[in-house]
Amino acid sequence: MDYRHLGRSGLKVPVLCFGAGTFGAGDEFFKAWGETSEDEAKKLVDLCMDAGVNFFDTADVYSTGKSETMLGRALSHLRREDVLISTKSTFRVGKGPNDVGSSRYHLIQSVEASLKRLGTDYIDVYHLHAFDASTPVDETLQALNHLVLSGKVRYLAASNFSGWHLMKSLSVSERYGWAKYVGHQVYYSLVGRDYEWELMPLAVDQGVGALVWSPLGWGRLTGKLRRGQPKPEQSRLNNQTVNDAGPQVTDEHLYRVVDALDEVAKETGKSLPQIALNWLLERPTVSTLIIGARNEKQLRDNLGATGWSLTPEQVAKLDAASRVNQAYPYWHQVQFAERNPFPVPQEMSRV
């Protein structure tokens, strides 16, 4: 397994990270992702560890904490220093007025609750799951800095921030000498390339590594969705709530990308998910891809996305098929590549 620095930090993470969103199945939304049992969870964790994937991602809101609890149990037979744990907070987890957001009160309370559920005394990477416009940025960042100084959190990351949200936060942390976000968990896939417009150039400039969620486009790039064919019986997209909550992709755009993936699959002998993941691993600023799996078969296939590379011609084919018209001012900026060049892919740090 290859490892990369998480942004401009000293922490090295595997290029694949296991997402525990299927752990717990605490409500209908997360049941649509999968219903992993405790025995299956341990098998998936061990399979990851055998492959060198020692990074595991969850969140307090996943199945109202059940994902964290199940992940903690699945990791309990391993040495704590051998694994990296990532979790998140900001979304509502209770009925009280302070059970949501990024206030000092809620963040400290959330970290304590996550530590208890995970069965650990520290979190390796702690994310704000979303931006909270109702809390002053300096209050949020001072609280996060306190958690780092206390040893309960090792590294900080954001998730789903806009460019100005992230840049303002980095600026405030720099002003006061507080711990800064070194990672940004973002949606990025062959059918969702908005990340490239502003967040990627910002990440290059500020040294923020991308932790990519839903790298297979909310389950669309598994090879099961094809022109003229019905959706498979087992798919999160069959749940309308889950479908509406995720990124929206037109059918024709999806089929155009799948057609290109099919062509590359014939040339490489790789599966469509492996190709889609490998394409992302060659993109600038990407530190790790968060992969989920309903079962061992899916996980083993996803693990096959590493250890090989697409040719420049194959990358160009996928780029062309997945390209969409950009919003202003990005469509204007890309016309002047001399002044606004596309970022250069980062070199991996192998250990």
Explain the overall architecture.
The protein has 351 residues and is an alpha/beta fold. It has 13 helices and ten strands. It has one domain (3-333): TIM Barrel, CATH 3.20.20.100. The strands form two sheets. The chain has an eight-stranded parallel barrel with strand order 3-4-5-6-7-8-9-10, surrounded by six helices. A hairpin with a 6-residue loop joins strand 1 (3-5) and strand 2. The termini are close together.
Secondary structure blueprint with pairings:
Blueprint: E1 3-5, E2 12-14, E3 16-19, H1 28-31, H2 38-50, E4 55-57, H3 66-75, E5 84-89, H4 104-118, E6 123-128, H5 137-149, E7 153-159, H6 163-176, E8 181-187, H7 199-206, E9 209-213, H8 240-245, H9 251-268, H10 272-281, E10 286-291, H11 296-303, H12 312-322, H13 330-333
Parallel strand pairs: 3-4, 3-10, 4-5, 5-6, 6-7, 7-8, 8-9, 9-10
Antiparallel strand pairs: 1-2
Keyword list:
two-stranded antiparallel sheet; 38% helix; 351 residues; globular; 8-stranded parallel β-barrel; TIM Barrel; 10 strands; 13 helices; alpha/beta
Compressed to H and E, one letter per element, the order equals EEEHHEHEHEHEHEHEHHHEHHH
Q: Which fold does the CATH topology refer to?
A: TIM Barrel
Flag low-confidence runs. 347-351
The biggest sheet amounts to: 8 strands, parallel, barrel
Instruction: From the alpha carbons, calculate the radius of gyration and give it in angstroms.
Output: 20 Å
Strand order of the main beta sheet, please?
3-4-5-6-7-8-9-10
Shape: globular
Number of continuous helical runs: 13
Top-tier CATH class? Alpha Beta
Can you give the helix content as a percent range?
25-40%
What is the CATH architecture annotation? Answer: Alpha-Beta Barrel
The CATH homologous superfamily corresponds to: NADP-dependent oxidoreductase domain
Beta strands, count: 10
Tell me the structural class: alpha/beta
**Average pLDDT for all residues:** 93
Distance linking N and C termini? 9 Å
Number of domains: 1
Sheet-strand content, in percent, reads 5-15%
